[in-house]
Amino acid sequence: MSTKEKIEEELDVAELESNQNEIVLYNDEVNTFDHVINTLVYACEHTPEQAEQCSLIVHYKGKCTVKTGSYDELEPRCSMLLDAGLSAELV
What we know:
CATH architecture: 2-Layer Sandwich
Number of helices: 4
Shape: elongated
Oligomer: single chain
CATH class: Alpha Beta
Distance between the termini: 36 Å
Number of domains: 1
Helix content: 55-70%
Order of helices and strands: HEHHEHE
Structural class: alpha+beta
Radius of gyration: 16 Å
């Protein structure tokens, strides 16, 4: 593989990664840890451990990216989080 091909390949990978959207979950003073964890398991298909870690990050840092992917994949998941009373945004 030539240097030119390697650079072009790296650019292609960077372009693919930049097209990813994110669901960002924000901290609030309303929802319990159990509710947030259960909702992340249901809506984002997290493992219980992953959901617990995200809930702790949200609690201490104020926000956490909980899922990445295409807009079409994430939009219904973000809607489920919002319908459950969580503060989330699709960016």
